[in-house]
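Sample A.
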Amino acid sequence: MYGKETMPKPAAVEPLVPPEDSQPLVDDPSHRALYRRWRAQRFGELIGQDPIVTTLRNAVATDRIAHAYLFVGPRGTGKTSTARILAKAINCTDREPDGEPCDRCAACVSVREGRAMDVIEIDAASHGLVEDARDLVMRALTAPAELRRRVYIIDEVHMLSAHAFNALLKLVEEPPPHVVFVLATTDTHKVPATIISRTQRFDFHRLSEEDALALIARLADGAMRDGESLLDQVLAYAGEQVTLEAVREAVGLADEATIVALVDAFVAGDAPAALDRIEALVDLGREMGQIAEQCEEETRRRLLHAAGDPTLARRLASILRTLAEAATVGAREGRARLALELLAVEGLAAGEPLSAPRPLAVSDATPLPMPRAAAPEPAIPQPLNPQPSDPQPAAAALAPDAAALRARWPAVIERAGPAIKPLLAACRPVAIDGARVTLAFPEERGFMREKVANRSAAIEQLLGSVLGGQWAIECIVSNVELEPLTVAQALTADPADPDGRALLEGVLRITGGELLDVPEVR
């Protein structure tokens, strides 16, 4: 054991002095994002959540603070801001009679500036393990360091593991008197009922559109933080003059007239007009996922007013389904433009233009000769669904061979609904084994196999209605070529265009190619 006189003296350490020309890091409010600069700091500044504000303010004023709260609602609706204001109000030393925090005392300032040691914010998405929960429990048992009460704000609480929830359960039910929990989540279904039953639940709602910034509010879908971020983006683009055109340009929207004209073309089956609109929007730098979403909104509006016209309503419903997929899955996977172009050219939603008196019947079509098969490549079948346990014996007896089924494939596609028609058009039947049909996709379209998995029951039912009997399908990716099956596929349904030039020009516009004597593969 060393005495004091034998302890070595610490070496002198010269302080770190910044260079003369360096600038200190200052948290300049003018450079913060809008949602940070204008985050609500008092109950009275919260927008659109009046019942919640009234209840919490009264609870603070009457000193009836619950031990645990559950804030539920979409992102950006004020859950975290409300939790921080509640932490202020609980610990404020100069609180107003109605429960409003002063936002001036030392406690309020420390919470506002994020340095209050007794207001602990935890992101459950990155601290959701049982070890994190146990550490929280141990810390909660200690007395507050500087404030009256310690407030734990656990964001995205539904991300906690099952074991972490179990570790917190007893503490949330009976916390020490100096602890208050505020649990925030966007997905209450993943929060155990045992936790929910031990909290006071408040549901936050999206904001309504009331003022001249209705377009930004609609794009934000009622989320205040998203709306402020969009406004920040528009201000960076257009300066202080926020106009409707500036919002559209900043976020890549098309004007309403263009969207109306594009939907008109979809409804009328006017492929050239629709493709011209799409190409023009691409040239303007518009984001196709956003365009699909705008078209979806316009089509939905029309559908709600088409109840008196069943034919038009069915047409709009089919278009709407395709647009919804383009705006979600297509936008996420970068194929929104392709989905819109397919909707224009292949008529996924309509079957025939509304102006056409009669579609070209399948019986009018003459099968084209099958091209010589490409050099065989090994392809391992990958079943997408199990074979029916007891397929009808009649299916095998009536089963055509693969060549005969390919000849009847146009009839199968014609009978298909809009959801599975593009899937069937993108593959070919290559083999039949009893009651099982093998469908082959080109390698370029291998991603469509997954979509077939979700539609296999409908496809099998369709085969039964066309061929009779009961069928099962499996799907492979091979070197199959998507040859045109019939002359009908090369012709438009418009009798005034017997050479099908409109459709051919539309296909060429999509592919950027030229007409050749080889089958088209996209």
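Sample B, a different protein:
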Amino acid sequence: MKPAGIRVSGRRPGTPRPPLALALPALAAVAFLALPLVGILVRTEWGELAGHLTSPGTVEALKLSLLVSFWALGLSLLLGVPLAWLLARVSFPGKALVRSLVLLPMVLPPTVGGVALLLAFGRRGLLGPWLEGTFGITLPFHTSGAVIAATFVAMPFLVISLEGALGGLRPRYEETAASLGASPVRVFLTVTLPMVAPGILAGAALTWARALGEFGATITFAGNLPGTTQTLPLQVYLLLQEEPEAATSVSLLLLAIAMTVLIALRGRWTGTPQDRKRHPAPTEEPDTKERATAGSATAEPPADAAPPAAPPAAPSAGRWALHADVTGFTELTLDAEPTTTIAVVGPNGAGKTTLLRALLGLTPRAHADLRLGDEDVTALPPHRRHVAWVPQDGALFPHLSALANTAYGLRAQGVPRAGARREAQAWLDRLGVGHLGHRKPAQLSGGQAQRVALARALAARPRLLVLDEPLAALDQTTRAHVRHTLRTHLAGFGGVCLIVTHDPVEAVSLADRVLVLQDGRALQDDTPAEVTRHPRSPWVARMLGRNAWPGTATPDGLALDGGGTLIAAEPPPPGTPALAIVAPEAVSLHRERPVGSPRNVWPGTVREITTSGSRLRVLVTSTEAPDLVAEITPQAAAELGLADGVPVWTGLKATETTVVAL
């Protein structure tokens, strides 16, 4: 009997046993790959190993191999990193052909690669005579030729690895950096490269290991000259003919180096930003305990609670009106005075994000003729438009602290480091997260990160601020805190702010105007109060919690598009397309057909009951009218015996219906 807790198998509990039909071939493959390596270990003369590896010829070849492989790595980084970025980020004709050329050296026989290099750079090759006649450079049978051969066969490993890492890096980080004023080269150096560092390291390690072991292209193109082109792999080839035991020892050295590289990588061939170790983020709930900041005995304020005495918002340094003519998928004209906040709402696919990206100059789907203040910025690239963007998740740069994130736009605009950090710290203090300046984004809660993202955008001195659902990822308590903070600082912003939102509370509490989009067109642009009273979009009406039924006006009301007729007190002229809007609390529910004042009475069936604060919302479907929602008290629901599938009658007075002409 096995003692309790003792595992007798290498499999984890609950792990299914692999089928023999797959396990046996897999084990055979492992044995096939491992047996040659075992052969080297078994046949190595361990007593002579040190003597073989320290012989003058081996030491000389090792030094040359290291020289050639590191030069090849340097050339691969210099040329391969931009090439990988081009393949990952730019669409151009012939891209598939270029990628095939990158992969070709990986599948081409090395000797064929050497012949190709000889025909290109040899003394009788395409470029060889010109290189020799103009610069006095002769590549074949020279150490530089060995470097060229190693680079040719090894660089694809770097390009493919880095392209995969760049493919895993979401472009919004680079786009956000551009919106903060960073040029494309600065974005590449300060955002892209640091975030794909694992991919670069993995690719560089593979490239160096491949260059160190290069044989076929080197011997064909550069020859096998001791001290000049005879690297370790070439020496192994010669030793096999004269000293097989020494060849085995040198082979073991190369094997050990290759295995060390692979073990160090631990399978991360394409290290993307997601491969980085993440610190657990603090909880979203405000912390009521006092926590000391790093290196300080002072207590830290609650995680997301607004400070009791936050410094006032910074005064705006200028005032910039907005005029934009947007064409393409989204077509509209937008004018706004300084300090105006516009909430952009509409269903998915309405063109909200396309509008923002058109203003940023980041999408080919739409084009914006954009004027900010007195300056036409239409022809300017994104980093020179002074349009700051806050994506839904903030897109904080994970390799920078909160303070460095906030100072990024200022540094990109040429502000000295000390001044940028001073101003950034002031913005963090204003938004109540100044004590978190030393933390990385992974160490911030959702509310903290969103405040840092807002501070970063405001610190960049924008003339137009665009926020893409900035509070959507936050819980209700945190959202209320951040909404209050946002409202406070937008009041002092001298430009125009556009906020994409699906939250009616945000639209009403933050915006001076509400722009309703549908199918890329402006359906309504009015004050929050007017949009709330008379929404012209069924989607907006439902977002506000109302029943909304489109139809065509008749003398008595509306012929509804979904079937049925609605009697209304003040319908528009007959034939007018219109929208009927009914508050859920105006719909009455009955178990028997009601008698009396309701002009609109339909039979239906309860399909869903949900809570809304202290009341219940009941979805009723009917064959004689569109689906509708009624709002009643829990007591009324209990008295009616409501449950899913229960038949009911709905009643609606004609005077409780608002009809808006479309």
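Observation for Sample B: The two ends are 81 Å apart (CA to CA).
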